[in-house]
Amino acid sequence: MDAKVTPLHVPIKDWAPDDKPREKLIRKGTAALSDAELLAILLNNGHKQKSAIALAKEILHTARYNLGELGKLNVRQLKKLRGVGNAKAVTIVAAMELARRKQAGTMLEKQVITGGKEAALFFKPLLADSDHEAFYVLYLNHNCRVLHYRCISNGGISCTIADPRLIFREALETGASRLLLCHNHPSGSLTPSLADIGLTRKLKAAGQLFDIEVIDHIIVSEAGYYSMVEEGTMV
């Protein structure tokens, strides 16, 4: 049975071996599979008369066939689709998070972050798909070598709260001498608010008490990134 004419309502177990996504991946590699086929492997099975491939295509349609948009869907949103329960929704969300961490890990392997562009490349995979604001801190030694990073807080659609005590306690525990701050704007805007600028200056002043330098504050969104150092708003 040719994969191109296999009715999508037919269970995958009844397909010819060469058409089944798992077998196809083993025989031909991941590049031979479509997004729907890869997603179907994660789903494992479909729903009643709907194959896993058909269900995968419905999910991709919901995400406008854009993997970036798929990464923004949460468990509750995915479960609105008939045939997607907790197990399938959690599997998809977990897979997308692993993809984000893999991309961020590529930057972490470089170990040294020297500017806003590199910081944005590190943080954007972690934050760009989020539908709420989150505040991260990158902990560095004096040579800007990465020691650690941590999500300090998750907030609402338009704001998040960063507790200076948590930030500097972590810095002291890790032996960091430099900090790089980052948060996202789900709205897509890259313009810092007065609260963003005020918090940055507050943290910069607090860092001087501990001889810990706040070297930049990055804002990321789908539109790109904003560096307070590059734009002169760190003063």
TrEMBL record:
PROSITE patterns: MPN (PS50249), UPF0758 (PS01302). It holds the Pfam family UPF0758_N. It comes from the Bacteria. One of its GO terms (molecular function) is metal ion binding. InterPro entries: MPN (IPR037518), RadC_JAB (IPR025657), UPF0758 (IPR001405), UPF0758_CS (IPR020891), UPF0758_N (IPR046778). Residues 112-234 form the MPN domain. One of its GO terms (biological process) is proteolysis. Keywords: Hydrolase, Metal-binding, Metalloprotease, Protease, Zinc. Belongs to the UPF0758 family. This is DNA repair protein RadC. It comes from Chitinophaga japonensis.
